[in-house]
Amino acid sequence: MTTSSQPRVRILTIGTGAIGAYYTWVIQRCGRTIITAVCRSNYEAVKAGGIEIQTTAWGEGPHIFKPDHVVNTVPAETYDYIIVCMKFLPKTYDIAAIIEPAVKASPNASIVLIQNGLGVEEPIQKRFPRNPILSAVAYIGVTQNTLGVVYHSGKTQRIIVGLFKPVEGNDGQRALEEFGDLCRDGGLETIVTDDIQNYRWQKLVWNAAMNPACIVSGLWTVSNVLSDEKWEKIALTTKKEITALATALGYKMPDNLVERSMITSRSLADGYKASMIVDLEAGRPIELEAIITNPIHIAEEKQLLHLIPTWYGLYKDMMVYLEQRSKV
Length: 328
Known about the structure:
It holds the Pfam family ApbA. Catalyzes the NADPH-dependent reduction of ketopantoate into pantoic acid. The protein is an alpha/beta fold. The protein folds into two domains: 9-194, 3-Layer(aba) Sandwich (Rossmann fold); 198-327, Orthogonal Bundle (N-(1-d-carboxylethyl)-l-norvaline Dehydrogenase, domain 2), CATH 1.10.1040. The chain is 46% helix and 20% strand. The chain has helices at 18-28, 43-49, 95-105, 122-127, 172-186, 196-217, 222-227, 229-248, 257-267, 275-282, 288-301, 309-327; strands spanning 9-14, 33-38, 51-54, 63-65, 69-71, 81-84, 110-114, 133-146, 149-163, 189-193. Strands 1, 2, 3, 4, 5, 6, 7, 8, 9 and 10 form a ten-stranded mixed β-sheet that branches. Helix 6 packs antiparallel against helix 8 (229-248) and helix 6 crosses helix 12 (309-327).
């Protein structure tokens, strides 16, 4: 526990939706942080009563996340960690510009990117080359269907985090280890790795296969896709191709990765919808670049398209579908 003589770790969370709220709440449980949460659509609800966390992972509630400070714009104040939990939507907003006031005021802060896909770090590194970037992959099922209420499905609450690249004059490795300790001491299952891109590819196997399969098939839910013989085979083949691409790029994938991914897919609740489907139905932009476009472009640049014929075809069909949908 923190004593009065121990300095508290100053954390700013930007994007306090389901993921941001849950992970920051658990980190806060370690007892040695000062949390500032940037809230937008849920600002009034969080300011008034905090965020209710509905979960069975911590016993009977109620569980209420009450940040030390709740704001609706990014403050120009000093922090040790700036946690970004916004979706990577470069055509919709510029994350680097959004977080700039806090980063400029915090020249030694580590920027923690809890986001899906590939290529999320480069725009931040380009704008803020002196700040260490901690790249993180989240494994958790959480939703915020009601403002100020986050629902956690199941008991999984894992984070995998690594240093994107060393920064001269700033001890990113120390920051990485400290952040890992904050997560562990709060109660998160935490993996600190020196090969975070490997884990990003591992998670991509599910996201980059199931999202377009759900969309292009018109079946919309994971259970519907897996109940259809044709589309189940396409999903399985796509996962194998993405794994083969990652392997060709030098990332060692677990031997049972595809098998585990299919088991995970089948274990999801009947009617479960992949994230892109949820966003499409809500009329929101989808995370196309990081999950689909960036890895496809890597395959094109490395002349490895022959490894992903099914996935590449699915990608092309998905782009046609999205273009047609935008005209409706």
